[in-house]
Task: structure prediction
Amino acid sequence: KQWYQRRVAITAGVAAAELAYENQAEQAVLDFVDSSSNTLFGELANLAIGQFDSVADIKSFIEEYVSKDLKGKVASDAAAAAKEAKKMANEWCSSGCTGQSADFVEALFKGMHGGQCVDASQFCGPCHDNAHAHFSAGNSIPCCMDNVIQKGIAAYEYVAEAYGDQVNEWVGLVSDELSADANAKAVEYRDAV
Result:
């Protein structure tokens, strides 16, 4: 009975969200997408809008393109990731990493700013050079912060290995629907990362 009540509540919530979107946001989204139609984002948004009119459409897409085995693997991996994230958050807080990391980032940005680097958020050219000099002077990332970074890298590598073929298949499906200009822009963004 409790399962059924949750299912009814979720269904009602989804229906309410769809109605709210239709009544309050849909036209603004369509106007924005239309104004961006000659961009990669615009083409992707148009593709999504054309493909998905409702949550049921998204569910159908998942049913068609995501195998039962993949769903189980994703669910298992997501549960393990959530458990690890909770553990890391507890370690982060208990070790005082917030303060250490804040001090590190503040010092890094102070070290980066100056000379030709007037906007440290643009991490290239003079800002990159200043950051390199900051680290070369013996400043290092706090161990607790480095631990989070290393685990993030390992997680990314795991996802790339475990799901890369499937993602590439989906990218191919989307790529087939985009213009040559949009595909070229997507490659440019990918290569920049």
